[in-house]
Amino acid sequence: MPVDWVHQFVTATADWLGVHTYEVRAPLALLLVAVACGALGSLVIGNRMAFFSDAMAHTAMAGVTLALLGLILAYNIRSTREADPHLWVLPLAMAAVGVTAGVVIAFLQEKTTLASDTVIGVFFAFALGLAGLLMPGLRGRINLDLEGILFGQLLFIDDVRLLILFVMAAVTLAVVGWKYNSFVFGSFNPVLAKSRGLSVRFNTYLFVALLALVVNLSIYAVGVLLINALLVVPAAAAANVSRNLRRMFWFTLFGCVGCSLVGYRISSGTVVAAGGLEIHPGPSGAVVMACVGWFFASLGVRAVRRRFFGAAVPCPHTSCSHVHGGGEYPHPH
C-alpha cells in the first residue's frame, strides 16, 4: 500500500537522521506544498487571481463543515473517537467542494455581466456563512480544531495526508508542465489563442480546478489564512527581479521552496523571550514572514538595478502589447 511505503520511508529517514518522525514529515509536507504553490504562483499573479485564490482558501471552511456533516450522516458518528478512522476522507471532500466552487465561480464570471471580484465576493460570503451556520452544531458532535484549520497543523501531518500532498505536487507539476504555455497564451490574448486552435475555456476551468485542488489540500499543512501567501508573495517578489515569464516562473518556484525551508528552520530553532515567556514561533507564520522578507528584499534588488543600470527591470505582468524576453513567452494578460 502507498501509505505503508510513505511510513517506511519516513521511519527509515528519521532513523538515519536520528530524529523523530514528525521532524521528517513536517519539512517534507511543507516542501511538497511549496513546490505546488511555487509552480502555480506566477500564473496566479499573471492572471490577477490573488483574490480568487484567497476565496478558494476560505471556501475550505465550507468544505470542512460539509465533509464533517457527510461523515456524521454516512457513518452515524456520535463522538470524535468514532470519527478518527474516517478522517482521511476530509481532505478529499474539501478538495471536491473547492473544485466545484472554483468551477462555478469561473462559469458565473463567464456568463454574467458582474465584475469578477463581485462574483468572488459572493462566494466568499457564502462559504464563510455556511461554515458559520453548520460549524457550531458540528463542534458539539466532534472536537473540531479551528486553530489548526486557520493556521495549519504542520507538525501533526500523518502518513495519509503526506501521501495526498505528494500526489498533489506530482499532479500540479504534470499539469503545469503540460499546459503552461496554453495557460499563458490564453490569458494573454484569448481571441488569438482560439484562432490558433487552443481551447481557452477548457484551459481556464482546468487551471481553476488545479488551483482549488492545491489550496484545499494544503490547508491542513499551512492553514486557511496563510496558504494564499505562499501563492502570491513569492510570485510578487519574482516579478520584481524577472525580465520575462520563464525567469519569473523559476524564481517563484525556487523562492517559494527557499522561503518555506528558511521559515521552517527559523521556527524550529528559535525561541523568543518576552516578559518571562518563551514563545516558539509557529512554522506556518514563520514561512509567511520569510516570504514577505524575500518580497521586500526583491524591492531592494529592483531599486539597485534601477540605480546602477539606469532602467527598471521590466515587470513580466505589466500591461503591454509586446512579447517579453526576446519572444520567450507572451504577457499573460
What's the short story on this structure?
This protein has 333 residues and is mainly alpha-helical.
Describe this structure in words.
- The protein is mainly alpha-helical and 333 residues long.
- It has one domain (23-330): ABC transporter involved in vitamin B12 uptake, BtuC (Orthogonal Bundle).
- Helix content is 75%, strand content 3%.
- The strands form 2 sheets. Strands 1-2 form a two-stranded antiparallel ribbon. A two-stranded antiparallel ribbon has the order 3-4.
- Helix 12 (245-269) crosses helix 13.
**Oligomeric category:** single chain
Largest sheet: 2 strands, antiparallel
Summed up, the domain count is 1
The fraction of residues in strands falls at: under 5%
H and E string: HHHHHHHHHHHHEEHEE
Classify the secondary structure makeup into a structural class: mainly alpha
Q: Estimate the global geometry from the Cα principal axes.
A: globular
Radius of gyration: 21 Å
Biggest sheet, spatial arrangement of strands: 1-2
Supply the CATH architecture.
Orthogonal Bundle
Contiguous runs where pLDDT drops below 50 for at least 5 residues: 318-333
- CATH-assigned homologous superfamily: ABC transporter involved in vitamin B12 uptake, BtuC
CATH fold group:
ABC transporter involved in vitamin B12 uptake, BtuC
Q: How far is the N terminus from the C terminus?
A: 44 Å
CATH domain class = Mainly Alpha
